[in-house]
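Figure 2 data, in text form.
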Amino acid sequence: MDRIKTPDFSKPVVNGDIEIHFKPLTYTEQNRNNMLQFQDQKMLEALPDAEIDEAEKLRLLTEAFQSLSELTVNAISDSISMIQAGDDIVVDKEHITEYIKNSVNQKFFQKYAKKLKKLKN
């Protein structure tokens, strides 16, 4: 019990004048993400042994990876309480998701993922 810590959501990820503030996922959000991820992983495990032609396998594999990518973006946006850029504050989930999808700075995107991983552990 001494090693169990409560994550610190008070420290945002900062990149220039942009601050990303995090929040814990609700049980429903976490459960939904886990179920979708499990379904995609099961499909990926079964795909190599499936008796279908290679073109269909490639199409299903591409769809699965796109789904996992979308799941990652949604998990990150679900974990963000707000984005602050200067005096502007964004709390709308659709706008946050759009920002994450359009985030061209891969290094900054990796900062989000690293912060989320830290918060989970």
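Caption note: Residues 54-78 form the longest helix (25 residues).
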